[in-house]
# Entry
Amino acid sequence: MTISGSPDKPAFQGGFRDIIGHPRALDILQSMLLSEEVPHALLFMGEAGIGKRTVALTFAQTLLCHERQMPEGESEGWIEPCNRCLSCQKFAAQNHPDLTIIEPEGASIKIEQVRALQDKIIYKPLDGPKRIVIIDPADKMNAAAANGLLKTLEEPPSHAILILVTSKPFSLPETILSRCQKISFYPLSLSQVERLLTERKGCSTQEARLIASLTGGDLGEALSLEIEGARELEAALYTLVSETTLNDYDALFDAATAHSRDEAVMAQSLHYLSAWFRDVLVLQSVPNPEILDPSWLVYSWRHEEIRRWATRMNSHEVGSFLADIQEIYQAQVRNVNRQLALETLLMQLRDKVLSQKQKASG
Ligand SMILES: [Zn+2]
# Structure
């Protein structure tokens, strides 16, 4: 099991203080712990890979902990799991009897899994006052499973707390959404990720910037991507913007096909393109780009090419491309035709970047 927020520690041995980012979500959960008023159903929603599951696990561990505490030196109103009691030990060993994690079996979460859960949670907890269920990702429940779960959400046992985790809340039926208290999670900023990469992995500023940009603020991915891998990935993604590609229709369509083949690859391509355009904007916004220190750029080793782009479009056009990229990014989780979207974008780039050059036949 990967715990993206605290990769250097063994699973379940952390606390809220080890979680990076998500200040608002943590404040809400802390106030629930302090008041001991925890809703029966919570929905953690936000982009994939930003640490929702880590927070769900930490919250579950704290609720189950026999000696949860306010750490010394902390300001009042902050509660952490003790990481020592029997409950925390069972949690760390991933065999706590009162924690159930439901994940897809094959492609989806099925009704049989929900029925098995329902048979189990009607019984009183074995170890403490609560039984906790984490369903991740909840949007993988098929229609029958979601329908089955609805019964539990309508009349939950008093000791049950369900945490549904999802990056696609709009895929869940409204009947489920309306019965959960929703907590939103937001991605870390690129500069937060960069700082963590320099602190935790000893990356140089330049390396951290490249890795953070390619992973679009997904800390788990950023921490697991080594610099050699990042450089290879950059070289592959560079085909999206290279003039060789844009000059040749066949190459352009091949690049669009290859770099949109699934959701994760498409996300990488869009992260790459946004960082590229940000570099173009940087060069456009300095009075004398000729003397700009290239280390200001994400793709500093491509600064001559980026400088050419900066002269071929104005900042308004760059802003418009950035907005398009953002729009495709938001739409792709709703299964817009990824390949067509990327092709269209590259065709527009071709027109823009090559418009002041003699276009090669293609
Ligand atoms: Zn404990």
User: Anything to note?
Assistant: The first helix runs from residue 23 to 35. The pocket of zinc ion is lined by residues 65-67, 81-82, 84-85, 87-88 (CB under 6 Å). Strands lie at 41-45, 99-102, 131-135, 160-166, 181-184. The radius of gyration is 24 Å.
